[in-house]
Amino acid sequence: MTCEEAKSRMADYWGRSLAGEAEAAFSAHLASCESCRSEVSRVGALWQSLDLLPLEEPSGKVRDRFYEMLGAYRQGLASADAPVRRRWWTQPAWQRAAAAALLVAGLGLGYGLRGTSQPPAEVSQLREEVASMRQLVALSLLQQQSASERLKGVSWAYRAEPSDREVLEALVSAVNHDTNVNVRLAAVDALRRFASSPETRRAVVDALPGQTTPLVQVALIDLLVDFKERDAADVLRKLAADGQVNDGVRQQAQWALERLQ
Amino acid sequence: MRKFALWTFAVAWLAPAALPQDPQRVTVAFSDPARPKKLVVDMSFGSVSVHGYGGQEVIVETSNRAGIRAPGRREAEPPPGMHRIGPSTAPGLEITEENNTVRISSARSPFAQADVTIQVPVQTSVTVNAMRGNSISIDNINGEIEANNLNGQVTITNVSGSVVAHSMNGKILASLNSVTPEKPMSFSTMNGDIDVTLPASIKANVRLKTDRGDMFTDFDIKTDSAAQPPQVEDNRKKGGRYRARFDRTTIGTINGGGPEIQFTTFNGNILIRKK
Predict the structure, then answer these.
(1) Contact A148 B183 (CB under 8 A)
(2) Rounded (5°) CA angle A109-A113-A119
(3) Residue A98: DSSP 8-state
(4) What is the ipTM of this complex?
(5) CA dist., res. B185 & res. B270, Å (int)
(6) Does B139 touch chain A (CB under 8 A)?
(7) Residue A146 in contact with partner chain B when CB distance is under 8 A
(8) How many CB atoms sit inside 10 A of residue B194's CB?
(9) Counting C-beta atoms within 10 Å of the first and last residue's C-beta, which end of chain B has fewer, N or C?
(10) pLDDT of chain A along its 261 residues, tens only?
(11) How far is CA A244 from the centre of its chain?
(12) Could you tell me which of B108, B117, B134, B127 has the C-alpha nearest to residue B45?
């Protein structure tokens, strides 16, 4: 046993609660260790003198005060109990029955809702989110500096809903204002997807006079023929008669006029 | 804080009559050669050629070719006993560098004329717009390439990255060693062939359209008719007619498909070659 361990046992030793092997080991340590032995005898003397102090005896008044207090407590308990009348729903039996009824009702409700309205609502919400994500991607890519990125935006526009007006507007704006011919061409092609909307047809007719690049003019004329847009006749006639316009474009406009008659 | 630098050079043209072919040379450094670099060229007249080289700066050389004239202007004969001082229309070329983009333009005069040869680091994105240029040629570049020409051929050789090219009245010739994945490309011309060489391993969706030409390839292009169903209108129930239309654009896939490559020509053939 070390001095540390011996010190932790000293209190037990003085209280006389050490026994058996522990006591033997403690005694053996004391026999071998001078400092522990002197501590045990010094503090042990104090313990023994504490034992000699007389025990304090409670006086008779303490007893009287105690019974007085107990009496007052019992009285208070009785007066607090009296007005409380138990309502029927506070009865444990009723509470148990109500809990069971609620549980059954909850299970029934959950079963009823399962597989009906909830999942389709989620799916349509998800579909909406995907559509708006595609719209965002298409719109942001169409604003990029690099022509290749804007082409990517046009190919995302193919994945948008054909009813998406913002994507339609972005494509029309690309047809009218994009600085790169190839982006304008791709945007004209993508407008085909929005054919069902009269706005698209109007926008294509309006875009034609503003174009100066023959290839884009030809693509717009082809689109008008595909749309069977009779309102385009005026614009096409002007184009076919304009000496400044590329010969191929004028021929294409003439052909389109005949097709649309 | 973004580092900001602006360099402006106006190349005034006072070539002595004795040396009319003397090229003018300007070297411009990029603000930060470690960041993506870009070159933008806008020319009214003259040809533009851009070459990638081993250096880190942009070297611009212009030579005023005798004979390039603004349309409709004839050169006057020198009076007896006199000789020409030099080309009368100075190109008024302007070169700027800002935000790692070098811009070269002749926009200072609508009649400016010059042939420009530009050397740039190989890793540079290049945009060239030529109005009445004879030709645009771009060679040995790795980056995004955009070329627009009004009246002349566009020749793009030995490049990597992506190409978007258009010519109104010229041929488009492009050859790519490798392509940036997921980048769409587009080649178009009103009057001319489109002749494009692509790496054999390229994955792409192709959209091909020629109004008055033919299309050829040595790639295995899968044209999937299921991918382009006819547009059907059925108005018979309303007393109308039934109509099914097939799009005139041919859509196909190379090596299983990938980003879109568009080929559009009105009067010309489309040739897609395997490298």
Answers:
(1) yes
(2) 160
(3) H
(4) 0.76
(5) 15
(6) no
(7) yes
(8) 26
(9) N
(10) 778 888 887 778 777 777 778 888 888 888 888 888 888 887 777 777 777 776 777 777 888 888 888 888 888 877 765 555 666 667 778 888 888 888 888 888 877 776 555 556 778 888 888 888 888 888 888 888 889 999 988 888 888 887 788 888 889 999 999 989 999 999 998 988 888 888 888 889 999 888 888 899 999 998 888 888 888 888 899 988 888 888 889 999 998 988 888
(11) 60
(12) B134
A219 contacts in B (CB within 8 Å)?
264
Nearest-neighbour CA in chain A from B214: distance (Å)? 17
Provide the 8-state DSSP code for B71.
T
The helix or strand, by DSSP H or E, that contains position B222, with its residue range, turns out to be strand B221-223
User: For position B23, what pLDDT does the model report?
Assistant: 64
Whether A219 contacts chain B with CB within 8 A: yes
Sole residue written with tokens 């050829």: B216
User: What residue type is A222 in one-letter code?
Assistant: D
Q: Do B190 and A180 touch (CB under 8 A)?
A: no
> What is the phi/psi pair of residue B141, to 5°?
-120, 145
Measured in whole angstroms, the distance separating CA A135 from the mean position of its chain's CA atoms is 22
Cα distance between residue A153 and residue A156, in whole Å: 5
